[in-house]
Amino acid sequence: MPDPILELTDVSLAFKGIKAINALSFTVERGEICALIGPNGAGKSSLLNILNGVYRADSGEVVFEGERFARIRPLQAARRGIGRTFQHAALFGKLSVLDNVLAGLTRHSRTTLAEHAFGVFRDRAETAEFRDRAEAILAFLDLSAHRDAIVATLSYGVQKRVDLARALVGRPTLLLLDEPMAGMNQDEKRAMSGFIAQARAEFGTTIVLIEHDIGVIMDLSDHVVVLDYGRKVGDGTPAAIRTDPAVIAAYLGTPH
Amino acid sequence: MPPVASVSALPGAHPVRRALVPTLSARATMLAILVTTAFAVPAVASDYWLNAILIPFLIMALAGLGLNLTMGYAGQASLGTGAFMAAGAYATYNLLLRVPELPLPASLVLGGLVAGLVGLVVGLPSLRIKGFYLVATTLAAQFLIEWVLNQYPWFSNYASSSTISAPRLALAGYDLSRPGGRYLLTLGTVILVTAVAWRLVRSQTGRSWMAVRDMDTAAAVIGIPVAQAKLKAFFVGATVCGIAGALWAFAYLGTVDARSFDLDRSFQVMFVIIIGGMGSLAGSFIGAAFIVLLPILLSHVAGIVFGGAIDGGQLQNLQHILFGGLIVWLLIHEPDGLSALASRLWHRLAART
Amino acid sequence: MSFFLETLAGGLLAGVMYALVAIGFVLVYKASGVFNFAQGAMVLCAALTFVTLRERGIDLWLSGLITLAILVALAVAVERVVLRPLANRPQITLFMATLGLSYVIEGTSQLLMGASVHELDLGIPDTPIELGPIQLSQFDLAAAATAGALVIALSLFFDRTRIGLSLRAVADDPGAALSIGIRLQTLWAVVWAVAGFVALVAGLLWGARQGVQFSLTFVVLKALPVLIIGGFTSIAGAVVGGLIVGASDSLAEIYLGPLLGGSVSTWFAYVLAVAFLLARPAGLFGERAIERV
pLDDT tens, A44-57? Predict the structure, then answer.
């Protein structure tokens, strides 16, 4: 029985007259891992930016959890449970791994400035609770050894994992991953795929991800949407996509 | 390799953390010794040391700390520090004058909070603009507030040329008007404010500030209320600067007018944190020590070398060259300021023992 | 009515002089992406050097040439020693570096040449002349004409020459400019040298108007609102911004000042600039960048 968490209808976006996304429609089911694929410039990152409010669609409709949002801001999107990682990790460079992850819990904070300043009332309990949640995610993603390292000093692969931890710690219902495996070698990719699959299994998080490695996508995802020049050219299970002639013509068949 | 760690893994049993413990307690011991010594200082220090060195050092450190919260931690550059200090000084003055029942600490805190509210308003444009466009809007506040305090004599109780003078400083029956008393008042205030700031920068608020500083777009996306964080940073930073301004007026100079808090003061406080280290509480103190001590040192050295043949104006020019040169050098070679140098030295020493 | 016109005209003339200072900032900003706070110190340094040479009895043109040589050398040195090592740092860091730099330049200038006020006579009479119903200062007119001529010359230089076109390419996209073979080093040197020249002209005009003294560095504070209103990247914007600031400043001084009971010139331009900034965050002529994550 279908239970869509996210529905897009005729979404379009243009920059200075150039269409980045053109009348795009598709649906993401609750609990699935949905991969967006397509050549560079196909509008994949722009689409994620629309979903969590960094950009605003010029037209079309986005329905998340049965609620239509015309103009969502990044903060509101996060508060409604849309998490996100970034193509270039976009971590808080001068903070430790632990602090980066703790920052991801801000939307759950119920304490005020005065409580923080004087360390009174709910502050101590919340600090302890956040710390436990952060430590749990660090352990889950095998990051505990890096807990106190300043993120700017870490390798790219580890930074991508910290980015995932920061998004995951807030327990989003929908998690958007922008090229979580870009620049990784095969071992790292396999590990990252494992973490993503495990996150879905453990927390029931619905995941929309952008990835270029077809092999990884075929193994990891339940559903693939293929974009080309801002248009949808394919939509279905990995097996169906692999044999779709339109997709092969537009994307899989052409070297890039 | 699939992840095998369970979600309920217990935190805390990590070697890195254990290794940190002795360093932390060593630091705490050092801090305790420092604070005790600081309170014992008036017993031995001359009035010159208190008046000309220690009191201005502590107050500049406090002002630097205030700006550091706004600029060093939250990344919101401001040249309105002088204005915030002025707001705090004039507000405290009026509270002391018009509500004499209030004890001194309450007037100081309330005066600081008035400055905080001014800071909140000045910070509003930060919701739309960044970088030195924001610096320009804080400059508007700097000029406007200086003008308002000069223009409307109510603020200085109709004193000539809008000067304000310290009323008798007393707390719980103790007279604090002598240098020793003013020093202890300043020291106590600085310690309390620093303790609060220390808590704050390690709290969720402080993390939000640093997140906004390091990557504001990402901060919003992961659920940090960026606008709120910026305004809080302006409010808290200006409150601290306001308290510093009141102390500058009453515990250090005794009599001030709005020109004591002009743009040069704003620059000076910014230099404190550039030299000491942005995003470091200790940096505010190191930078303030530098700013206060260098001119004194310079005039002593010049006195010895030139034997009084060099006048005050030339000394000031030399000072400007030195400060300016140091700032350029630090920005190029040590953007985290002297505190980063100091902590590297500390770690080297700690590693040796 | 004629009083209003006189105030307005006087303000516009002052505005041209603000624009002149602002253009020094725009050039450097376009080439290096820096708000060069030290431009004010360069103006002071120029005026002080020139007036010191003149007081030693050196010929007018020779003084001008020597000063220009010193300014160009200074500008190029600043670019080499300070800005190049700071390439790719946040803008605000660059701004703070130029702030430190302005302390160095101003301190050195005054250390070597003294801090007293010098008269500077450029040989332009300062008698009022009648223009229809209004009276204007002849010096202001001459200064505005000079500034205006310089603005036009600079616009032509940057619109028509190879260097100018390169500058536009660099301002648009440093990477692309590099790949089409523009020598950034040469470009930077030229732009900073021109900024030094602009500082010289501004220093002479402002110095002749209000005496050569430390307060000349404050022209940077007058130029900042001009830049905010006009945008940091547009010469035309600097001119329009200068005129807006000049005119509104002198009108506010006459009509708003008495209402508030005092001179408003220290802050009016800034409050105006903030209002513009909130309405148009990139300035009247600036372009807003799309943020990417």
Answer: 889 999 998 889 88
Class of residue A207 by CB neighbours under 10 A (exposed 0-12, middle 13-18, buried 19+) = buried
pTM for this structure?
0.90
Residues 6+ apart with CB under 8 A from A224: A34, A35, A37, A217, A234, A235, A236, A237, A238, A241
Residue pair A7/A176 in contact by the 8 Å Cβ criterion = no
A47 half-sphere exposure, CB direction, 13 A CA radius: 35
Residues 91-150 on C with a CB inside 8 Å of B are: 91-93, 95-97, 99-108, 110-111, 115
Q: Say if residues A196 and A211 touch (Cβ distance below 8 Å).
A: no
CA–CA distance, B248 with B4 (Å, rounded to integer): 59
For residue B218, count other CB atoms closer than 10 A to its CB: 26
Q: Find tokens 């006189």 and name the residue.
A: C6
Nearest Cα residue in chain A from C288: A16
Q: What's the rounded Cα separation, in Å, for the pair C20 and C206? A: 10
Torsion of CA B92, B97, B103, B106, to 10 degrees: -20
| Beta strand extents in chain A (DSSP E only) | 4-15, 18-29, 33-37, 59-64, 67-68, 82-85, 174-178, 206-210, 223-228, 231-236
B55 versus A241: the higher-pLDDT residue is B55
* Nearest Cα residue to B74 out of B134, B157, B13, B25: B134
Cα–Cα distances in angstroms (integers) from residue B263 to residues B268, B269, B278, C123, C277, in the given order: 9, 10, 20, 35, 21
Domain boundaries, chain B: 20-352
Task: Give B45-84 pLDDT, tens digit per residue.
Answer: 888 888 889 999 999 999 999 999 999 999 999 999 999 9
Q: Which residues contact C163 (CB under 8 A, 6 or more apart)?
A: C157, C187, C190
Q: In this structure, how many other beta carbons lie within 10 angstroms of the beta carbon of residue C95?
A: 17
**Distance between CA atoms of A62 and A69, rounded to whole angstroms?**
6
Contact yes or no for B204 and A105 at CB 8 A: yes
CATH number of this structure's domain B20-352, picked from the four choices 1.10.3210, 3.30.70, 1.10.3470, 3.40.50:
1.10.3470
Rounded to a whole number of angstroms, the distance from the CA of B125 to the nearest CA of chain C is: 7
The residues, any chain, with a CB within 8 Å of residue C136's CB and separated by 6 or more, are C6, C9, C10, C13, C128, C129
Instruction: Kindly state the tokens that stand for B14.
Output: 């990590």
Question: Could you tell me which residue, C290 or C61, shows the higher pLDDT?
Answer: C61
A216, A193 contact by CB (below 8 A): yes
Residue whose structure tokens are 């002052």: C14
Give this complex's ipTM: 0.91
B/C interface, count of CB pairs below 8 Å: 125
User: With 50 as the cut, is the pLDDT of residue B3 above it?
Assistant: no
- Asked if C281 and B133 touch (Cβ cutoff 8 Å), the reply is yes
- Among B290-299, C137-146, C204-213, the range with the most confident prediction by mean pLDDT is B290-299
Greater pLDDT, B40 or A191: A191
Least confident of A13-17, A144-148, B173-177, B315-319: B173-177
Among candidates C261, C273, C291 on the partner chain, residue whose Cβ is nearest the Cβ of B136: C273
β pairing state of A18-29 and A206-210: unpaired
How far is residue B240's CA from residue B237's CA, in Å, rounded to a whole number? 5
CB contacts of B220 in chain A (<8 Å) are 73-75, 78
Please check whether residue A86 is in contact with residue C293, taking contact to mean a CB–CB distance below 8 angstroms: yes
**Token pair of B340, please?**
């980063």
Backbone angles phi, psi at A37, to 5 degrees: -125, 165
Report the alpha-carbon angle B21-B26-B30, nearest 5: 150
By the CB < 8 Å criterion, does A123 face chain B?
yes
